[in-house]
Amino acid sequence: MALDTLTDIDWSTWTPTVQATLLFVVRDGQVLLIQKKRGLGAGKVNGPGGKLDPGETPLACALRETEEEIGVRAVHARPAGELRFHFVDGLRLFCTVFRADDALGEPRETAEAIPFWAPADALPYDAMWADDRLWLPALLAERPFRLRALFDDDTMLDAALEVVAETSAMTQTDQHE
């Protein structure tokens, strides 16, 4: 059966094959972004993040990956939303997204990423994953969200965004730690 829309997926039994995180530092109208150098999404602009290590919580992963990828420590990081990506090749990625108020240290380039600050009102969406333009405005407005998206490689086939009343309503994170 071809996967063309979100309704082609049984989300009630959907389980991730990979769990990951993203972290966005938002400070003084600027967002700390990276140009990813390797791995899934290489060449694209995103927030720092990566796959959870065994036994690691999403928050610990987001903080570790941010420090490893760009050399800064996020301050006051908190859950902002959840992303469920289903790729037609079978990859099922669950991502917890965090927002932080600041970062300690100066962002630096590493083998993983090139960091840069971008104005929150002029994010480079054309260089980002297609779904980012759907949920990043909710993150910037501090409105908790859930997104489900279907991708064929890096082409988004379908997506649905739900803005939720409060972060505690996002129970999927606890189920997949």
Structural class: mainly beta
Q: What is the H/E order?
A: EEEEHEEEEEHEEH
- List the quaternary state of the chains: single chain
Average pLDDT works out at 92
How far do the termini sit from each other? 31 Å
Biggest beta sheet attributes: 9 strands, mixed
Shape label: globular
Number of helices: 3
Strand content: 35-45%
Low-confidence stretches: 171-177
| Strands, count | 11
Give the % helix: 10-25%
Question: If you compute it from the alpha carbons, what radius of gyration comes out, rounded to the nearest whole angstrom?
Answer: 15 Å
Structural summary, described in words:
By secondary structure, this protein is mainly beta. Helices cover 15% and strands 40% of the residues. It has helices at 58-70, 132-140, 172-175, and strands at 18-27, 30-36, 45-46, 49-51, 73-75, 78-87, 92-100, 102-104, 113-119, 145-152, 155-163. Strands 1, 2, 3, 4, 6, 7, 9, 10 and 11 form a nine-stranded mixed β-sheet that branches. A two-stranded antiparallel ribbon has the order 5-8. A hairpin with a 4-residue loop joins β6 and β7 (92-100). The radius of gyration is 15 Å and the shape is globular. Mean pLDDT is 92; it is low at 171-177.
List the main descriptive attributes of the protein structure presented here.
177 residues, nine-stranded mixed β-sheet, 3 helices, 11 strands, single chain, 15% helix, mainly beta
Summarize this entry quickly:
This protein is mainly beta and about 180 residues long. About 15% of the residues lie in helices and about 40% in strands.
